[in-house]
Specification:
There is one protein chain. The protein is an alpha/beta fold and 394 residues long. It folds into 2 domains: 133 residues, Response regulator (Rossmann fold, 3-Layer(aba) Sandwich); 252 residues, P-loop containing nucleotide triphosphate hydrolases (Rossmann fold), CATH 3.40.50. The protein is built from 17 helices and 13 strands. It has an 8-stranded mixed sheet with strand order 8-9-7-10-6-11-12-13, sandwiched between helices. It has a 5-stranded parallel sheet with strand order 2-1-3-4-5, with helices on both faces. Strand 3, helix 3 and strand 4 form a beta-alpha-beta unit. The radius of gyration is 23 Å and the shape is elongated. The termini are close together. 43% of the residues are buried. It binds adenosine-5'-triphosphate (ATP) and magnesium ion. The site of adenosine-5'-triphosphate (ATP) has 18 residues, from helix 6 and helix 14. Adenosine-5'-triphosphate (ATP) binds next to helix 6 and helix 14.
């Protein structure tokens, strides 16, 4: 289990009640909970939109919302965050109704002892996690973490990052998959099969001919190319006649099916905001935006980060990788990049022109062919960081 404190959002307008609960949790929790408070529903929704909250402790009677409407609004904003209802003695029936509709539990204010409070919250988080895993398994086997990689502009090094990160993950974890979800020319092919004759490895094209319900983990598995490194690849089209925009419901089904197959799935998504990209990011546990340090690319990175947030990806699930492909006369420093984009830094990849060319010639990403190189070191660190709980959540 994680040693990290759980982030609890206490939604309670009454200051005395809030203090009693916070003190009780601090007393029994021994640092297990980091508690923050919202006094109004609007404030709670804003926090749920922008932060990684592990559980909501929710009073239904707030200045700007009352009764079941409060619970419904929270569920709508954050369907994957467990809720424990806080009620007065007289409105227990509403709490029971909330449990019927998906709240994990309820507590009657003034009656819960510190130990009961502590145990209720812990159980609620654990029960919710188990239920979520069971649901995912029912939908398609394992429960892999999905990492989306998006270039803020074309040619910034997104595919190089995606493939090296996936390969580094495959060295340490089983069943890692890299997939390209793009309607045109497969870049993966050239990274691994450079100068080899173009074989019929276009799994993506075959899969998107199926209707979404038929794009299952089992079906996708048939089209994965297994590399000696252990990495599984789903390759996009290589011939013009196969180029085809992926419909959003198919991109969604593909991302879901892939998550059912791997411990980590790295999706190489298009740099332009295609409908497929927009659908796939909603299935991602974390999205990496790759940029270079030109002012234009940083501005494009900001637009990408804004778009991701509009699509519902919360800021803590977005990170930046800076690739220094070449020395630049006009380059933005990293602190300013982060300030502009409002995202955390996942890593900086130094210039590695020779290692990139050699990797392509050898048909193996540089983390394999040149593991001691500085760029490889940075990419391995990025993979390690992405695999931590802090980034991908529990
Ligand atoms: N760290 C680096 N140092 C030097 N060159 C690099 C580095 N990373 C990537 N490159 C080179 O930059 C070019 C573009 O890389 P890549 O194909 O990964 O970018 P992309 O963002 O996926 O592009 P596209 O928009 O075409 O999908 C390639 O020639 C690659 O070898
Ligand atoms: Mg690419």
């Amino acid at each position: 289990m994680s040693t990290k404190a759980y982030n609890i959002l206490l939604v309670e307008d009454n200051a005395v009640d809030a203090r009693v609960i916070t003190e009780a949790l601090n007393k029994a929790g021994e640092g297990a909970f980091a508690i923050q408070r919202a006094e109004r529903l609007s404030e709670a929704l804003e926090k749920l939109r922008t932060q990684a909250i592990d559980l909501v402790l929710l009073d239904f009677m707030l200045p700007d919302s009352e009764g079941m409407a409060t619970f419904t609004a929270v569920r709508k904003e954050a369907p994957n965050v467990p809720v424990v209802a806080l009620t007065g003695v007289s409105d227990e029936s509403i709490a029971i109704e909330a449990v019927r509709q998906g709240a994990q539990d309820f507590l009657v204010k003034g009656q819960a002892q510190p130990k009961t409070l502590h145990r209720t919250l812990h159980y609620a988080i654990e029960r919710h996690r188990v239920q979520a895993e069971q649901l995912k398994q029912a939908q398609g086997g394992k429960t892999g973490k999905v990492i989306g990689v998006i270039g803020a502009r074309g040619g910034v090094g997104a595919t190089t990052v995606a493939l090296n990160v996936a390969t580094a993950l495959a060295k340490k974890h089983k069943d890692v998959i890299a997939a390209e979800l793009l309607g045109s020319y497969s870049a993966f092919y050239d990274h691994f099969f450079y100068k080899k004759s173009r074989a019929a490895l276009n799994g993506l094209n075959a899969l998107i001919k199926l209707e979404p319900p038929r794009i299952t983990s089992r079906e996708v598995e048939r089209f994965l190319v297994k590399l000696p490194s252990g990495l599984g690849l789903l390759l996009g089209p290589q011939r013009v006649e196969d180029f085809k925009e992926i419909e959003p419901d198919k991109a969604d089904a593909l991302a879901r099916a892939l998550a059912g197959l791997g411990s980590y799935v790295v999706l190489d998504l298009q740099s332009h905001a295609s409908p497929a990209m927009q659908a796939a990011v909603k299935r991602c546990d974390f999205v990496v935006v790759v940029i270079d340090r030109t002012p234009t690319c940083v501005a494009a990175g900001k637009v990408t980060a804004d778009l991701l947030q509009q699509l519902g990806v919360i800021p803590v699930r977005i990170g930046v990788v800076v690739v220094n492909r070449q020395p630049l006369p006009l380059s933005v420093d990293v602190a300013e990049v982060l300030n502009t984009m409002g995202c955390q830094l996942v890593g900086v990849v130094p210039t590695a022109t020779d290692a990139c060319s050699e990797a392509q010639r050898m048909g193996a990403p540089m983390v394999l062919g040149d593991p001691q190189g500085t760029a490889s070191g940075a990419l391995i660190e990025i993979a390690d960081r992405l695999a931590t709980e802090q980034i991908l959540g529990k």
